[in-house]
Design a protein that fits this description.
- This protein is 37% helix and 24% strand.
- It is of the alpha+beta class.
- It has two domains: 84 residues, no CATH class; 284 residues, Endonuclease/exonuclease/phosphatase (Deoxyribonuclease I, Chain A).
- α1 runs antiparallel to α3 and α3 packs antiparallel against α4.
- The chain is elongated.
- The termini are far apart.
């Protein structure tokens, strides 16, 4: 009887291992298949970190069992190395220094969540405008790229820079408003992306993706930095538009078969729509990057993980500042999962990345990301 039980357990382990390998390899295909054509595979990419850990566990188990399955697991793990390599920063953490070295251009990107008004995890205050402005001033970036920016309630003043930032030398800016009906607030709201700079802006432009897309436009500003001109892009790609009950449903998928099925279907529907729209948005952004006559920096909330079609399409031949100087998973969303890095700073290879840091503060539901970079020879 005991040998039979052992055989059943061994077969069960083998079947589970095969399933894990198949799911892992499918997740490895995510960057190469447009999420607009195969959103189901794109969704599997969200589980990539978990699948990697499960497969690594099987690998270790089979090593101790001295089984040939260990080589199968190792081969599968190595096939996914490209995806693993964009998830983890293999550098010792270095905080951004208060004082900048000569020749350094400091860039900050932050989804402000309307100064913390839409922060789902920190409701002790209606907003955190004062604290956030103070952090921005202390960080002393040369270029600020903000998403979900809301400063003045009256839109006719939206092209104004906050006085607190004007005092720190931010004289140049480019705003673009977006108006949409937000069910979560039961009203039509205005939000914006904005590029604010200490250096002169010589030209600007934008494109709206689609009237149906709830995404900020792609914006760019040509910034004169010393003798160089850099085209800085910022954007906020399609959100899944989850409301409070979606997050509660994800935390409590145990409310009975019928309720769980209904909640899961609603969540999958939101994810599907977002994946389909982000794929076309990413392709449009990539085309604009290719058309730039200047070295490019693109910052923003891409609303997608590193092992995604969106990320690989946007990154192209650019450098990911986090991969160059970051450490760990580089989490930028402060809830749901510790592996969710969805805010990025990508830079042209003409620039050298000197430092990168994720500032973990609770004000927005996103953490700000900051990078120091320079042109070689600028000291």
């Amino acid at each position: 009887m005991l040998p039979r039980i052992r055989k059943i357990i061994r077969i069960s382990f083998s079947v589970a291992n095969i399933m894990a390998i198949l799911c892992y390899l499918l997740a490895c295909l995510v960057p190469f298949i447009s999420s607009g054509k195969s959103w189901l595979i794109a969704m599997l990419g969200l589980a990539f970190p978990l699948l990697f850990i499960v497969l690594l566990g099987f690998f270790i188990y089979w090593i101790f069992r001295r089984s040939k399955w260990a080589f199968v697991c190792l081969a599968a793990l190595l096939l996914g190395w490209q995806q693993v390599s964009v998830m983890i920063g293999f550098h010792f953490p270095k905080k951004i220094q208060a004082s900048k070295e000569p020749g350094i251009l400091r860039v900050m990107s932050w989804n402000l969540s309307m100064w913390g008004q839409s922060n789902t995890s920190h409701k002790s205050k209606p907003d955190h405008e004062t604290e956030m402005l103070d952090l921005i001033k202390r960080t002393d970036a040369d270029v600020l790229c903000f998403q979900e920016y809301l400063y003045f309630k009256d839109s006719k003043y939206w092209d104004s820079i906050p006085a607190a930032l004007m005092e720190k030398g931010y004289r140049y800016s480019y705003f673009k408003q977006v108006r949409y009906h937000a069910r979560i607030y039961q009203t039509t709201i205005l939000t914006a992306s904005v590029i604010i700079s200490k250096y002169p802006i010589t030209d600007t432009g934008h494109i709206f993706f689609s009237e149906e897309d709830l995404a900020d436009p792609l914006m760019y500003a040509d910034i004169k930095f010393n003798e160089h001109t850099i085209r800085v892009f910022t954007t906020h790609l399609q959100s899944v538009m989850f409301e409070g009950w979606h997050y509660n449903a994800m935390r409590n998928l145990n409310g009975g078969v019928k309720k769980t099925y209904g909640d899961s279907k609603a969540i999958a529907y939101r994810l599907r729509n977002a994946y389909i729209k982000r794929s076309s948005q990413a392709e449009a952004v990539r085309q604009k990057i290719k058309e730039s006559p200047y070295p490019v920096i693109i910052c923003g909330d891409f609303n997608d993980v590193p092992n995604s079609y969106t990320y690989f399409t946007l990154k192209g031949n650019l450098q990911d500042a986090f991969l160059k100087k970051g450490s760990g998973f580089g989490r930028t969303l402060n809830f749901i999962s510790p592996t969710l890095r969805i805010d990025y700073i990508l830079a042209d290879k003409e620039l050298e990345i000197d430092r990168f840091h994720v500032i973990k503060v609770p004000y927005s539901d996103h953490y700000p990301v900051v990078a120091d970079m320079r042109f070689p020879g600028d000291h």
